[in-house]
Amino acid sequence: MEIVICIGSGCHLKGSKEVQEKIRAFIEEKGLEKEVFLKASFCRGNCRNGVSMSIDGEEVLNVSPENIEKILLEYL
Ligand code: FES
């Protein structure tokens, strides 16, 4: 599984760094290092809907540091 998260300035302001840290912690905590790969991208042209993120190419909307764990539990 591949998670791509935007680290462009718009998403940075919405907490993409914190989202990344929470994803890394989640992967480590669940022992998913060999199954889930986290990648970064620059602006994905989707700055309006929270932090821009995709999971296996599927856009996930309204991602924030507050809801990322819930989203991960739904997808993983
Ligand atoms: S800065 Fe993240 S989608 Fe534009």
What is the count of β-strands?
Answer: 4
Nearest-integer average pLDDT = 96
Oligomer: single chain
Briefly note the CATH topology name. Glutaredoxin
Question: N-to-C SSE series?
Answer: EHHEEEH
**The first-level CATH class name:** Alpha Beta
Bound molecules: FE2/S2 (inorganic) cluster
Overall tally of structural domains: 1
Distance between the termini: 9 Å
Please give the largest β-sheet.
4 strands, mixed
Low-confidence stretches: none
Using the 3D structure, state the CATH architecture. Answer: 3-Layer(aba) Sandwich
Shape: globular
Per DSSP, the total helix count is: 3
Q: How is the largest sheet built, in terms of strand order?
A: 2-1-3-4
Please identify the structural class as seen in this structure: alpha+beta
Per CATH, the superfamily is Glutaredoxin
How many whole angstroms does the radius of gyration measure? 11 Å
